[in-house]
# Entry
Amino acid sequence: MRTIFYDTETTGKEYQKGHRIVEVAFIEMVDGKLTGRHFHSLVNPERDIPDEVVAIHGITNEKVVNAPRFKEILPEILDFIRGAEMVAHNAEFDEKFINNEMELAKHPESFWSVVSDTKDTLDMSRKIWVGKDPNSNPLRNYKHNLDAIMDRCGIDRTKRVHHGALIDSELLSEAFLAMQKKIEEMGPTLEDDVARPPILRVALTKPLPKVTVSDEAVQAHHSVVAPKTSGMKL
# Structure
């Protein structure tokens, strides 16, 4: 099984409003072991990066002014991810941003047609940790951001100064393996696609009886319904 852990950094939250990718990172795992192969690049978004977003990931306009545009690195990205199982945290965000960049580059394929499958560690976290967090004071529901997951899994994240696509992908792979182990220990749940007995269907051995309504019964029905509907506009 070839799995790619990946992350993107962007100029904002909504690609529908013209926000673009400024950094991408993909790291490879085969049969549960990291291979050391990865693809990482800053990206020129062809627009300004707002200051409030720079404060989050530390990527400034100056850092990306000479970086390649997404369409220029798209062939390398597709070569790296094609046919792989893709794993991200809050995957819908990254999937749609990458797919939008592919559309802007006029690529004939979609992101989802290129890869074999997609998984979201956010869904995995919500499956493992349900309800109130006993370690929070006061008691609050479990948080499912990547930082909270890493803390619960005992993953060292001190080297992570800013959100960055490459470091986040590396930490994500550790979180994924830890959560995958926890889910295996949990065993099947009601949400899992476990084997179920076949549905029994009753076959009729003879036709259903016919019911005949008398003229008197029909007239009695109309005498009750007609007064209520006569004033209605159809």
About this structure: Confidence is low (pLDDT under 50) at residues 228-234. The chain is about 40% helix and 20% strand. The radius of gyration is 28 Å.
